[in-house]
């Protein structure tokens, strides 16, 4: 086992006591130039924060939603069985924010199980239990990342050159990160030579967030545009690609940030291993294949504008699927907190649970 570097970056934190306090979210839209913390007082605030990308990344979205559920129920009085519609309304509000990352629905399901157990309890007890659940999801995610980071790092002898995409770091999780967690663990064990950070058009999670995390922790990283990946692979300067995911289907198909599928195809052509690092909370055994995963379609202005400046003419058609699906047969291995699994994923994924 390698010693983890303690990342001091977190996407959210709590301020005050549970009865009157608030959730603080680091506004990821303002990074890397400004570190602004927004105060969330209600489920509506949290839902807006997720929808508008104040917080993003599959595990972080799930954690935020669990806190949103607790904040939402805090506003009421009396036992839940007297007003079950309120719980459903808040759950649906949070569930409607973003469709692709399964962690959102997984976390809300955990909250629903808590509520079911305490449907006759007074509201203070229910709210307290929901806050405990949110804290537990937050803490577990960080611990799981540390574990999967070590499993991932053990796959390499070093010195290794990794290419990654989007942001899968402390900002996208309970801390530390999934794919970036593996990279952190490689760095800690002195097996990391270098990281190529794909900028991740159109939302630039790689350029704005992963690059920021790497610089903050002294990880040797080079930012490239997405279209440069093939070039550096051809030059023999990429030993492996490691990414995160928003949902893995039962057959091992991987939904992740748009551009992931293209990288997997490039890896196949250049004979480079393609790894997906994820907590078990992102594996959805109830979804048979990637064809069944809803792909979020986002606002066209995220494609036509960069930093508020218009880059495309009025009137042009624009497509903006935020995610794509990489077929399981392009995935070399899936790295989790319970170990590393290889194809055929239909057989190996269920053994992790
Ligand atoms: C550990 S994060 C894994 C994924 O959530 C990440 O790769 C990703 O695609 C995030 O997309 P985003 O649209 O920024 O929420």
From TrEMBL:
Domain of life (superkingdom): Bacteria
Pfam families in alphabetical order: IF-2B
Family note: Belongs to the EIF-2B alpha/beta/delta subunits family. MtnA subfamily.
Function, in words: Catalyzes the interconversion of methylthioribose-1-phosphate (MTR-1-P) into methylthioribulose-1-phosphate (MTRu-1-P).
HAMAP family tied to this protein: Salvage_MtnA
Catalyzed reactions per annotation: 5-(methylsulfanyl)-alpha-D-ribose 1-phosphate = 5-(methylsulfanyl)-D-ribulose 1-phosphate
Catalytic residues, chain numbering: 246 (proton donor)
Group of enzyme by EC: isomerase
Gene giving rise to this polypeptide: mtnA
Protein name: Methylthioribose-1-phosphate isomerase
GO biological process, one term: L-methionine salvage from methylthioadenosine
Keyword Amino-acid biosynthesis: yes
Enzyme Commission identifier(s): 5.3.1.23
InterPro entries: IF-2B-related, IF-M1Pi, IF_2B-like_C, Initiation_fac_2B_a/b/d, M1Pi_N, NagB/RpiA_transferase-like
Site location (Transition state stabilizer): 166
């Amino acid at each position: 086992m390698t010693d983890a570097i303690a990342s001091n970056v977190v996407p959210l934190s709590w301020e005050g006591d549970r009865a009157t306090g608030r959730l603080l979210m680091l506004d990821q839209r303002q990074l890397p130039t400004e570190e602004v913390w927004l105060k969330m007082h209600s489920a509506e605030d949290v839902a807006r924060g997720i929808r508008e990308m104040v917080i993003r990344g599959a595990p972080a979205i799930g954690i935020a939603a669990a806190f949103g559920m607790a904040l939402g129920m805090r506003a009421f009085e009396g036992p839940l069985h007297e007003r079950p519609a309120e719980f459903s309304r808040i759950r649906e509000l949070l569930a409607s924010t973003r469709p692709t990352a399964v962690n959102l629905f997984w976390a809300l399901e955990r909250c629903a199980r808590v509520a079911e157990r305490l449907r006759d309890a007074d509201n203070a007890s229910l709210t307290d239990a929901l806050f405990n659940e949110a804290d537990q999801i937050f803490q577990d995610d960080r611990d799981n990342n540390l574990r999967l980071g070590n499993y991932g790092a053990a796959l390499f002898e070093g010195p290794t050159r990794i290419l990654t995409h989007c942001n899968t770091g402390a900002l996208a999780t309970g801390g530390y990160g999934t794919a970036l967690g593996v990279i952190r663990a490689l760095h800690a064990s002195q097996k990391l030579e270098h990281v190529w950070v794909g900028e991740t058009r159109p939302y630039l999670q790689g350029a704005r967030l992963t690059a920021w995390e790497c610089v903050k922790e002294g990880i040797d990283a080079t930012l490239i545009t997405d279209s440069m990946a093939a070039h550096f692979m051809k030059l023999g300067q990429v030993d492996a690609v490691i990414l995160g995911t928003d949902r893995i289907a039962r057959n091992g198909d991987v939904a992740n940030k748009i551009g992931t599928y293209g990288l997997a195809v490039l890896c196949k052509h250049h004979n480079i291993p393609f790894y997906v690092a994820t907590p078990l909370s992102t594996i959805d055994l109830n979804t048979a294949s990637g064809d069944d995963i809803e792909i979020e379609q986002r606002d066209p202005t995220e494609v036509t504008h960069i930093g508020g400046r218009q880059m495309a003419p009025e009137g042009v058609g624009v497509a903006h699927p935020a995610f794509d699906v990489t077929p399981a047969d392009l995935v070399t291995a899936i790295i989790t907190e319970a170990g590393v699994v290889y194809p055929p994923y239909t057989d190996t994924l269920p053994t992790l649970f």
